[in-house]
Amino acid sequence: MNEYDLVYAAGFFDGEGSIDISNRKEKNRIRYILQVRVGQSKEVGKQICNWLQLNFDGYIFSRDREKNIEYLWTVTAQKAFKFLSQIYPYLKGKKNQANLAIEFAQEMNKNLGKPWQLEKYSYYETAKQEMHFLNGTKGK
């Protein structure tokens, strides 16, 4: 990917993207996940989401809104980490969130396949709450 495209992706993401760390209960443990999204409506939104998917992988979802269709490009886990790592040098508005997300993903990678540890739960939960704070939303 050339620098021009990375700068474009970063600028677009700064304006229309979001980063989230969330969790869900699975059997006898809690699973944490990193998710990156970009949402846009109309035909131009569809084109941009297709461009993001072509260049950074992920999925595109659409949903009906009152007057138009909104398109959502989404990447999670390792793909979210890769995307954020690539555009990080060019981010302005979401640099703090991206930094936290990259650190979170690196910590998750260190623990893949290892037994569940309570101190890791504490780190993941703190990262989730910090991301909610940076995003200006209330944590769950």
Give an account of the 3D structure.
With 140 residues, this protein is of the alpha+beta class. It contains five helices and four strands; from the N terminus they run αββαββααα. Strand 3 and strand 4 form a beta hairpin. The longest helix is centred in the last third of the chain and has 18 residues.
- The helix count comes to 5
Gross geometry: globular
- Fourth-tier CATH superfamily name: Homing endonucleases
- The overall average pLDDT, rounded, is 90
Percent strand equals: 25-35%
List keywords for this structure.
26% strand; 140 residues; 5 helices; globular; Endonuclease I-creI; alpha+beta; four-stranded antiparallel beta sheet; single chain; 53% helix
Summarize the structure.
The protein has five helices and four strands; from the N terminus they run αββαββααα. It is an alpha+beta fold. A hairpin with a 4-residue loop joins strand 3 and strand 4 (69-76).
What's the SSE blueprint?
Elements: H1 3-16, E1 17-26, E2 29-41, H2 42-56, E3 59-64, E4 69-76, H3 77-87, H4 95-110, H5 118-135
Antiparallel strand pairs: 1-2, 2-4, 3-4
